[in-house]
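Entry 12.
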Amino acid sequence: MLRSCAMLIPAFLALAATGVAQEARPPVSQCQAIAERLPQVKFASFAPVAYEAPEVSISFIGHSTFLIESPGGVRIATDYSGFLLPGGPPDVATMNKAHESHFTLTPDPGIGMVLHGWGDTPGEPIDHDLVVGDVYIRNVTTDIRAWGAFEEDGNSIFIFEVADLCIGHLGHLHHELADSHIAEIGRLDVVMVPVDGGLTLGAESMRNVIERLHSSLVLPMHRTGPRVRDFAAMFAGDYDVVYSDSRTITLSLASLPRPPQIMLLQGVW
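Predicted 3D structure (tokens):
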């Protein structure tokens, strides 16, 4: 416990310098609370007609890196490997270690907080549970292949709860999710999925994962071109497949697509 506190102190000071505050106690996860009642739950809105739901923007930067920007101005880079980002260093950078294209050991010192998806101590999974500005960030660990075997808890699925949305990044997922993973993750309105079929999870298995997460918007990543287009085509008839002419999508809880979409942002397809 003392070690964890000591690690958080410099990160807190760095965030204070950027004007992004971190609360002491994370809230209860709304993603998990709603997911416990799926699929029986019926969604309803009691907001006034004039209410404008807060919006989140998600931009594809490259490979598995997206830039998430919250209504409060918090900027998060996923599976960050050192890409130059529009607007400068992010407030938070998440990383996974399956390949060097998902992390960097020399992150920009201007980044407010770096969150590794793997434990610093062998055999001990990393546990993130924190609030940065208006974003609640947590992780669920999964295993990765390593030297012909599996390394337990070597990858993290990062979940960002912001503006009433549940946004998840699967990292470098190497196996289908167990019931325990699904329970920990909860519902994901938006999910970023690695498309590979070789180094990551196969296409059919990835489809199973997506369907279990009840996501409204699926953003493929990791590979580009024909392979990702073939992946999207698997969902035709069950999902709307959208080829975007922009690298960025802006959305809110009110604007989530119905029926669900597989969206290929510019730079992916």
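Annotation: The longest strand covers residues 149-162. The chain is about 20% helix and 30% strand.
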